[in-house]
Amino acid sequence: MAKYGRAASKRVESAVSRTKKGTLKSGSGRKVTSRKQAIAIGLSEARKEGGKVPARKGGRKTGRKTARKTSRKTAGKSTSRTSARKTSRKSARKSSGGTKRSRAKS
């Protein structure tokens, strides 16, 4: 039995032809140039219409945006600290002559 229905193939065909014309836009509004991306858009359109299309494999999850936001917040904090450390180390090296010294245990 076929994986994809007729409606799905029509949608994909339409998306690919729109790509060739240059009128197909991605979710962000940018022009689609990749054939694979055009096919993916066509399949997702067919899914929304209720056509016979298999469910998406793994890929992106819906909670990705929130995860990205939290990782950005934590990344921003850590980079400001590390950059401050790096600059203080550089200035310490310049003043000490730039040679590596082993720390003496007390």
Descriptive notes:
There is one protein chain. The protein is mainly alpha-helical. The protein has one domain. The protein has 3 helices and no strands. The radius of gyration is 26 Å and the shape is elongated. The model has no long low-confidence stretch (mean pLDDT 77).
Largest sheet: none
- Tell me the span between the first and last alpha carbons: 77 Å
Low-confidence stretches are: none
Spatial extent as radius of gyration: 26 Å
Task: Name the average pLDDT.
Answer: 77
The percent of residues in helical segments reads: 55-70%
Number of strands: 0
List the domain count as a whole number.
Answer: 1
Q: What coarse outline follows from CA principal-axis ratios?
A: elongated
Keywords:
0% strand, 106 residues, 60% helix, single chain, mainly alpha
What's the short version?
By secondary structure, this protein is mainly alpha-helical. It is about 60% helix and about 0% strand.
Layout: helices, strands, pairs:
Blueprint: H1 6-21, H2 35-49, H3 64-96
Helix pairs in contact: 1-2
